[in-house]
Each structure stands twice: as structure tokens, then as C-alpha cells.
Design brief:
The complex is a heterodimer of chains A (75) and B (725). Chain A has a single domain (3-72), classed as Ferrous iron transport protein A (FeoA) (SH3 type barrels, Roll). Chain A is built from two helices and five strands. Chain A has helices spanning 21-29, 63-66, and strands at 11-17, 37-43, 50-54, 57-61, 69-72. Chain A is globular and about 30 Å long. Chain B has four domains: 4-173, Rossmann fold (3-Layer(aba) Sandwich); 181-276, Orthogonal Bundle (Helix Hairpins), CATH 1.10.287; 284-541 and 600-725, no CATH class; 544-593, no CATH class. In chain B, the strands form two sheets. Chain B has a seven-stranded mixed sheet with strand order 2-3-4-1-5-6-8, with helices on both faces. Chain B has a two-stranded antiparallel sheet with strand order 7-9. In chain B, a hairpin with a 2-residue loop joins strand 3 (41-49) and strand 4. The radius of gyration of chain B is 32 Å and the shape is elongated. In chain B, 41% of the residues are buried. Classes of the chains: A alpha+beta (75), B alpha/beta (725). The A-B interface holds A 21-31, 33-34, 41-42, 44-49, 51, 55-62, 65 and B 63-64, 66, 68, 94-95, 97-98, 101, 128, 253, 255-256, 259-260, 263, 285-286, 289, 293-296, 298-299, 383, 387-388, 390-392, 394, 400, 493-500.
């Protein structure tokens, strides 16, 4: 499942982070990497970007960026 | 005895409390400037402590030292090239895992690192327990607990930093990230390849350089090529072979694998030092966000905050602005009384004081605005604003944070352009600076009011609204155009932390506000002074104008004739007659000024430029008025007043003069479009120069906006004529 398809309040485990090299590395460096647990806190009022909790802090990503990330074990 | 001096750099994530600690160490003894060549703020301060002179450098807040952004490049270059005696890494205790990522990179560089474990008290209330002794032992570095906003642990921190600087520990032997077997294998093979060849002397430490080259770090690669020359190319080639080998082995780029491994190393450490009690905790920040980024009321609240900021800046700011204005006037009037009439006096009063005075009056607005922005930033609301607005700003190819500067542009472009400092990406910053002047600033409003009032009386409000709206549309179009041409490249990714809300510290708000304002005063002073003098010279010379009428004689004769009338009236009605006298003299004065303006260099330039303005339906007088608008847009109206021979003050008479001139509603509209778009005032141009740090971009901004203004006004006027308006 893509991260961008997750709904508010769901949790999941990051499976793979794709995307262009620089952006991809930035996302990884911020702690969104394989095996990290994430929680979808909310989507912005205009449905983009989204806010998630990873490694104990709040991070926001654009939906198009989140569409490069796959998640598993979505609950 | 002179003190020994040590350099201490503060590194850390954004929002880790780094700036608070910096402020606590240095207090008011800090210097704010720019890092050479870039517009990243550089803060440093010098303090004497424990018999040492400590030079404290506040590095830009970064999440890593991978050179993506200018901030990261600046921070890394400082550590690499300036070799500070100690680097204090400020670790946000409630964000240990992510903070340690930067720490592992600092450790890799082989500098003396000290941890300040900040805000452990907050972390404890969130149920996080950190075994600092164990952490210190595992990473083999000293750790000091600090509570930045209560300035606890600061002395201890400096004491430990000095101790570390004076110790002669060998940092290269310290514990670092150990990568997996294949990567370590490549590293050691590359190391022996380099060591075998005595001609190769790398610019930086060997292991670090190899790691960076394996990570495909462009900056390090270039520096190796520069320093090592031909042999460097061999090294790069050898690295490339290993990169491909590793990529093949892991089915992914080595830099990605290495990022993973660093987090793996961190996870190993965390397992031993970090415990959380999973109790149902109350997270105030999340609760605040339930309101502030709420689907329904998030926007209304945001609009309210922006409205409040506007009100404070431009409505409350009006009062001190008026005081300053009165002060400048008073100064100018008393100087007028003190000095004998001379060219120097004219230069001082009408050139220097009028010019600099017209900019100084913005100081209250700037102080208030930057106070508000500091409040937004320090509380953590700024990133929420970006979160809310990103969808809309993304349409123009901009980051959500660009919204605030663009909005401020409706008030005044000077603080608006200064507010672009909050943007991280240089391209975003330049793009925002280029389009912000299209947000019609408050100084342009009097021009619209006068022109629409005269030519569109009933529909004035609608016309003004359309002008404002046109500015926004043109800004969006220009933004999209630049994004796809000059400033190509995707806009900065929106990978942004939403930090917990914090109560801001008054001290840091005030330092922040004062720093920015000081910069405004200092840098503006020079350019504006020169510009004002130039404009004054153009309109005050040549001195010996051949007037078509002898104004002085006429004034004298008018005065004489009225004086006899006053005597004849014998006290009766003398006030009424005096008023008439004053009006008659003022009329003559105005005519004289108008002729002087017409015959000055400025007037001549206006006449030379007349063919340029003619296709827009603007005559030479309008052209001169627009030229003087370069000093400040407000002046356009007063110049028009003088040139169109308005008798007395107030726009009623300017109205008659304009209506009897060649100006039509259509040419008035063309003129307003021109005013909306053409080059901004001198204060703004100076700010653009300061904030882009580039003469080229400043020139570009001035040229393209003026060209665009001409083309747009041309289309309006000629198009309107074709349509038969």
C-alpha cells in the first residue's frame, strides 16, 4: 500500500522509499526508512500535505512525495 | 596576559533549542551577518569565561550534513575548513533518535564533539528516560544536561567544552559508525589504494573522504579533483568501481544503504540507553493542532492571525510612524530656520533628510512585523502556516512558507522581501523576491485612489480591486514562468518537521527583532542616501533656469497690491484678504515649481522619455511623476500635483487639471497598470540587493518588471483604443 493512500489515524510499517535520489535520501535521513513505524496524524485542510508521526516527532510530506513510499501492516 | 582564544561551534537540528542556548551564552554580545557568499544568517559572539576568550559560532540548524541545502553546506564547510576547537552538538532529548543522525555525521568528520542533552525535563514528562552515562560511554564523548530556556547547565557546558578543547584525545580512534562488511571492505581497499600512492594528499581525512566519495558527494568529489589533480581522477575512477560493485551487491545506491546503516547503528545505541514508559500521555501540542490545523477552522484561525499581524504592523505602526514623520519634519524645519539659504541646505533638506527620512519612517512597521514573524517562528506556528498553505503555493511552484512574504507585500515590499529569509531553498527565495513586488504595496494605493477617484468615480472601488487582483494573477503567472525557465528544478521538497509548540522567550524575540531591524537601518542607509541625492540632483539642477515669467517680481507686486488693499480695508475683513493673498502667492509658487521641474534635468529626461510613454497614453508629466516614484511611490501623486499645475493642495484641483489634460480613463488605467508592475522603490531595490546578495538578480528584477509594466500598459491602452474605449 502507498503511504499516500493511508487514512488518518492508521499506522503502518515503512517498506520501501522510492523517488528521486536527493528527495529520497532526505526522507530517509529524517527517519522514514524501512522498518520505521509511522502513524498518519492528519491531512491538511486542502488534503495536501499530510502529517505523520515517525520516530516520536511530527513530519509533513506532500502527497506526491508520500506516493513514492510503500507501507505494510497497515492498521 | 592575553587570554587564550578558542572557537566553539554550536550544531544541532532546527528546533533543538540551539538558538536559545546561543543567546544564553552570548547575551547581547552577538554579531549577526551573513555567511560569505550566501544569505544564510551567521551569528557569532565572543565571551570571556574561565580565563579563555571563547568565540561561539551558531551554525545553521540542520538535520544532517549531507549537502542538500545551503545551510548544510555552510555548516559542514565550517566544521571542515575552519576546524573549530570543539563542536557542541545540541541534542533535543525528546527527539534523540533523529538528533543522533547528525551526531554520527559529526563524529565521522573527526572533530571534538560534545553533547548538550537539551530539554531532558520535557522528555521526562513525555515518559522518555535516557541513560546519559551509558550514551556517553558508548559514543565516547562528554555529555552535559542543559535546559536552554532556563539557562541551566550552560556554565557546565562551557567548562566541559574548554576541557575537551585542551585535552589531546585522538578523535580518529573514537567510536564511529561501522558499516557492513562489504562497505568496510571497499573502504579499506580504497584506503590502501590511496596510501600506496604518496602523490595523493587528500583535502580531508582519508576515511571521511572515502565515505563521502562512496556516497557520491559532488562537493567532496570536486575538491578532491581540485586538490589532487590527475591522481584525483584515478581515485574517483577507483571509487566508481566500488560504487558499482556495492550497488550491484545491495541492489540500491551505496548512499542509501549507508543512511540505513547509520540509523541501524543509532538503533543499537538506543536499545541500551533509551526507555519510554508507554503511559497515555497528554500531548499539548497535538491538542493545539486539533484546532490550528483543523480541517474546518484551521484556515479561519490562520486568516485571523495574518489579519492581526497586518493590523499590528500597518495600523498600530502608523502611530510611531507619524511621530517619526513629525520628528523628521521638525528636524527639517528647524534646520531650515538655522541655516542660511544655500545649495548645501537644499541638498540636506530636500535630498538627504527627505530621502532617508522617507525610509526611516518604516522602522516601526519593520520592528512590529519582525516581532510577529519571530513570534510565529519561535512558537512553531510558522511551519503550521506552511502546512496549511502549501497546497495553494505549490500551484505557483513555491513552498508553503512563501505565503507570508507575499502577503506582507501588500503592506510594504521592504519587510516582505526581508521575510523571505524564512525560506530554506535559495531558488524559492529568489523566486519569491522576484514576484513579491507585484503584490501592490500600500504606497501605491494613494495613486490608485487619486486616479480612480478622478476617472472612474462611481466604479473606483471595483477598479482598485481589479488592479490588486491583476497583480496577484501576474505574480502567479510570472512565478510559474520563472520556475520553468530561470529557476528550473522542482521546488523544495516539503519534508518539514512540525515541531512541538513552545512558549517563546521574550529575550530571544527581542534579539531576533532587533537584529533584523539593525540590518535594515545599516544597509538601507547607504544605498538610500546615495539614491536620494541622485534624484535630488536631477530635479534641483541646473540652477540658473531661464524662467518664462519673473515669478519673484510677480509675487512682490501681488503682495504689494494686497497690502494696499489690507490698509484700505482698515482692519475690516483683513483676515479674508490675507487668505486670498496667501492663495495668490501659493499659485505663483506652484507655477514656478512646475516650471523649475519642467526645466530641470529630471524634466528633460521626462521629455526625452516622452516617446516611450506616449504609446501608453502617458504624457511627459506623467512620465516624470513615474520616474520620481523610484524614490517612493507616494511621491508620484505629489509630483503630478506640481506638474499638472494644481492650485493649492488637495486632489480636487488636481482633478480639474487632470481632466483638462490629455488624460482619459483609459490612459489612467494604463498608468495604474504601469504603477502596479514597474520597478519598485529604491528602498525595495536596496533590499532585493541585500537579500539576493547578487547585483545580477537585482538588475534582472528591476528590468523585467519595468519591461513587463510597459508591455502590460501598452496592451491596456492600445487594446482599449482598438475596442473603442
Amino acid at each position: 500500500m502507498l503511504l499516500s493512500e493511508m487514512k488518518e489515524g492508521q499506522t503502518g510499517i515503512i517498506n520501501r522509499v522510492g523517488g528521486k535520489s536527493a528527495l529520497r535520501r532526505r526522507v530517509l535521513e529524517m527517519g522514514v526508512l524501512k522498518g520505521s513505524e509511522i502513524y498518519i496524524e492528519k491531512y491538511a485542510p486542502l488534503k495536501d500535505p499530510l502529517e505523520l508521526i515517525v520516530k516520536g516527532y511530527h513530519l509533513s510530506l506532500r502527497v506526491e512525495e508520500a506516493a513514492q513510499i510503500t507501507v505494510e501492516d497497515v492498521k | 596576559m592575553s587570554q587564550k582564544s578558542l572557537t566553539i561551534a554550536l550544531a544541532g537540528n532546527p528546533n533543538s533549542g540551539k538558538t536559545t542556548i546561543f543567546n544564553n551564552i552570548t547575551g547581547t554580545r552577538q554579531k549577526v551577518g551573513n555567511w560569505p557568499g550566501v544569505t544564510v544568517e551567521k551569528k557569532e559572539g565572543i565571551v570571556s569565561k574561565y580565563g579563555y576568550e571563547l568565540k561561539i559560532i551558531d551554525l545553521p540548524g540542520t538535520y544532517s550534513l549531507t549537502p542538500f541545502s545551503i545551510e548544510e553546506i555552510v555548516a559542514r564547510d565550517f566544521v571542515l575548513d575552519e576546524c573549530p576547537d570543539v563542536v557542541i552538538d545540541i541534542i533535543d532529548a525528546s527527539n534523540l533518535e533523529r538528533s543522533l543522525y547528525l551526531a554520527t555525521q559529526l563524529r565521522e568528520i573527526d572533530c571534538k564533539v560534545l553533547f548538550a542533552l537539551n530539554m531532558a525535563d520535557v522528555a521526562r514528562t513525555r515518559g522518555i528516560k535516557i541513560d546519559a552515562d551509558k550514551l556517553s560511554e558508548l559514543l565516547d564523548l562528554p555529555i552535559v544536561f542543559t535546559i536552554g530556556n532556563k539557562s541551566e547547565g550552560i556554565d557546565e557546558l562551557l567548562k566541559k567544552a574548554i576541557e575537551l578543547a585542551e585535552s589531546d584525545v585522538d578523535t580518529s580512534g573514537k567510536r564511529k559508525v561501522k558499516y557492513n562488511k562489504d562497505i568496510e571492505n571497499s573502504i579499506s581497499k580504497l584506503r590502501s589504494f590511496i596510501e600506496k600512492n604518496s602523490e595523493i594528499s587528500l583535502p580531508y581525512k582519508t576515511r571521511w573522504t572515502i565515505i563521502k566519495l562512496l556516497e557520491n558527494d559532488k562537493i567532496v568529489r570536486e575538491r578532491v579533483l581540485q586538490k589532487v589533480g590527475d591522481q584525483g581522477r584515478n581515485v574517483i575512477q577507483e571509487v566508481q568501481i566500488h560504487r558499482e560493485l556495492l550497488a550491484d551487491r545491495f541492489n540500491d545506491d551505496p548512499e542509501i544503504v549507508m543512511t540505513d546503516e547509520r540509523y541501524g547503528f543509532i538503533a543499537g545505541i538506543l536499545k541500551e540507553v533509551f526507555t519510554t514508559i508507554t503511559k497515555q500521555r497528554i500531548d499539548i501540542s497535538r491538542n493545539i493542532d486539533l484546532v490550528l490545523t483543523n480541517r474546518f477552522i484551521g484556515f479561519p484561525v490562520f486568516i485571523f492571525f495574518i489579519w492581526a499581524m497586518f493590523q499590528l504592523t500597518f495600523s498600530l505602526g502608523v502611530y510611531p510612524m507619524e511621530w517619526l514623520d513629525t520628528g523628521v519634519n521638525w528636524f527639517s524645519v528647524s534646520l531650515d530656520g538655522l541655516l542660511p539659504d544655500s545649495l548645501l541646505k537644499d541638498l540636506l533638506i530636500n535630498g538627504v533628510i527627505a530621502g532617508v527620512g522617507s525610509v526611516i519612517v518604516f522602522l516601526p512597521n519593520i520592528l512590529i512585523l519582525f516581532f510577529c514573524i519571530a513570534l510565529f517562528e519561535d512558537t512553531g506556528y510558522m511551519s503550521r502556516a506552511a502546512f496549511l498553505m502549501d497546497r495553494i503555493m505549490h500551484l505557483i511552484g513555491l513552498h508553503g512558507k512563501s505565503f507570508i512574504p507575499m502577503l506582507m507585500g501588500f503592506g510594504c515590499s521592504v519587510p516582505a522581501i526581508m521575510a523571505t529569509r524564512t525560506l530554506e531553498s535559495e531558488k524559492d527565495r529568489i523566486l519569491t523576491i522576484l514576484i513579491t513586488p507585484f503584490m501592490s504595496c500600500s504606497a501605491k494605493l494613494p495613486i490608485y485612489i487619486v486616479l480612480t477617484g478622478i476617472f472612474f468615480s462611481a466604479k473606483a472601488g471595483n477598479v482598485i480591486f481589479c488592479i490588486y487582483f491583476a497583480g496577484i494573477i501576474i505574480a502567479i503567472l510570472a512565478g510559474r514562468l520563472f520556475r520553468s525557465t530561470l529557476l528550473r528544478g522542482a521546488d523544495a521538497p516539503f519534508v518539514m518537521e512540525l515541531p512541538p509548540y513552545r512558549v517563546p522567550m521574550v529575550k530571544s524575540l527581542i534579539i531576533h527583532m532587533w537584529d533584523r531591524s539593525k540590518m535594515f537601518l545599516k544597509k538601507m542607509g547607504g544605498v538610500i542616501l546615495i539614491g536620494s541625492v541622485v534624484i535630488w540632483t536631477l530635479s534641483a539642477f541646473p540652477r540658473n533656469i531661464q524662467y518664462s515669467r519673473d515669478y519673484i517680481a510677480e509675487i512682490n507686486s501681488v503682495r504689494a497690491s494686497y497690502n494696499t488693499e489690507i490698509i484700505a480695508a482698515n482692519g475690516l475683513d483683513s483676515q479674508h484678504i490675507e487668505k486670498k493673498l496667501d492663495a495668490a502667492i501659493a499659485e505663483l509658487e506652484m507655477a514656478r515649481k512646475s516650471e523649475m521641474m519642467e526645466k530641470s534635468y529630471m524634466g528633460r529626461i521626462g521629455k526625452i522619455l516622452a516617446p516611450v510613454f506616449a504609446p501608453l497614453g502617458i504624457d511627459w508629466r506623467g512620465g516624470v511623476a513615474l520616474l520620481t516614484g523610484f524614490v517612493a511611490k507616494e511621491i508620484v501623486v505629489s509630483t503630478m500635483g506640481i506638474l499638472y499645475l494644481a492650485e493649492g493642495e488637495g486632489s480636487n484641483t488636481l482633478k480639474n487639471a487632470l481632466l483638462s489634460s490629455d488624460m482619459t480613463p483609459l490612459s489612467a488605467l494604463a498608468m495604474m497598470v504601469f504603477v502596479l508592475l514597474y520597478l519598485p522603490c529604491i528602498a525595495t531595490v536596496a533590499t532585493i540587493k541585500q537579500e539576493t546578495g547578487s547585483f545580477k538578480w537585482t538588475l534582472f528584477s528591476v528590468t523585467y518588471s519595468t519591461l513587463l509594466a510597459w508591455v502590460a500598459a501598452f496592451c491596456v491602452y492600445q487594446g482599449g483604443k482598438i475596442l473603442g474605449l
